[in-house]
Write a structure and sequence with these properties.
The structure is a single chain. The chain is an alpha+beta fold and 158 residues long. It has five helices and eight strands. Strands 1-2-6-8 form a four-stranded antiparallel sheet. Strands 3-7 form a two-stranded antiparallel ribbon.
């Protein structure tokens, strides 16, 4: 989707959404054709370069009893924040009020994150700011990456 958008002049804005482990943060990224793309802020597997949280236990999945299924424990209240961010991004896109690569983030409360074994990411604090007690929504800058393979390829073709 990212490549299609960057290669097609008529492609509309794209909204990407994701959750961090334990649904400790929800992200909504509205990407316009011009400006930074999704790949500018992710690795080749789609993992964001910058997260709000870090976790002691690298694997947030839990084993379901009596079967081979795994799940990540979070509920509808955490998901609702992600849904709200995505809806807000969609409305902004439809009204033409988005701006270039708008990144919205909901951050869970510090006690909830620490209780689940997480902490604030040092990189997030350095680049965006200390979330303090959390429980807030912020807009973060989605920076262009001069080494982004998608944007770099597009610049060569243009």
């Amino acid at each position: 989707m990212n490549d299609l958008q960057k290669d097609n002049n008529a492609f509309p804005p794209v909204i990407y959404g994701w959750l961090e482990p334990q649904a400790a943060a929800a992200h909504a990224l509205l990407v316009e054709r011009e400006g930074p793309c999704l790949r500018c802020g992710t690795d080749d597997l789609g993992r964001p370069h910058r997260t709000v949280t870090v976790w002691r236990d690298a694997d947030a999945n839990r084993q379901a009893p009596a079967c081979g299924a795994q799940f990540t424990p979070y509920g509808p209240s955490e998901l609702a924040w992600g849904h709200a961010l995505l809806a807000e991004a969609a409305i902004d896109a439809l009204l033409g009020e988005a701006g270039i690569s708008t990144h919205r983030v909901w951050i869970a409360s510090r006690p909830r994150i620490e209780g689940a074994g997480g902490a604030w990411s040092t990189k997030w604090i350095e680049e965006v700011g200390d979330p303090g007690e959390g429980g807030s929504t912020v807009r973060a800058i989605w920076r262009a990456d001069p080494s982004c393979p998608v944007c770099h390829r597009r610049a060569r073709v243009a």
